[in-house]
Amino acid sequence: RSFAQSLLRFLGFIFWGSAAVQAFGGVLVILMFKNYRYLFQEPYLSLPGWLALAVALILLPTGVLAVSISVKCSRNQQGTLMYLLLLLLCLEMSSAALACFYRIRTVSQLESAMGYLVYQHNWTCSQDPGSSAVDAMQRRLQCCGVHNYTDWLKTSASSWHLPACVPESCCKEKHSHCGGDLGHLEQLSQEGCLKKMGDKLCFAMLYMFWCCTALSILELLAGVSNGILMRHQPFHDLHFL
């Protein structure tokens, strides 16, 4: 019983720290899909992030109850803690499953989405919606084209430019006004946007998956510890039944 109390107290403090970790992961996923919404059309893709924020909010009172029960056992508090742990477990397993599924699905769709934006790009018209999306993506990720800068040589717009060039958004940050001239490749970003965006997406989703998995294990330990304490405090007031 003393070990269960100590473990529950320790897990209570861990839950408070985990709330910040979950909140960070949720905000990371939500902002990623918001900033690159022109690549990800489905609005529900940010659902794992919102679930992570809900988990972070519920973790705060759960940690308070865990520490409180470890000091003074209360039947009402023990029952409430069990309900919260069950709710957290359902939310986290849902978030982990969605993150794993969305990572596989969205990575396979990235190439076609980026290819469409690049090949429809017309950098002679800055007001074109497709152009602004591509420029924003290339400046934010410091990349050029889908796989590399040569993707721009395959577009219909490239035939109008002599000598061959790429959009200015391909320029490196320290050469932001290089003009996109292919005669100065050292001033252009060499890496393609597909790899950079894929790495960013995989990091966010794997972060969510492993955080939810690790936290679920800790919650199972908290549930077992709480169960041990409840077993040592039988329902004396129900003995008359």
UniProtKB/TrEMBL annotation:
The keyword Membrane applies. SUPFAM superfamilies: Tetraspanin. It is a multi-pass membrane protein. It comes from the Eukaryota. It is found in: Membrane. GO terms for cellular component: plasma membrane. Keywords: Membrane, Transmembrane, Transmembrane helix. This is TSN3 protein.
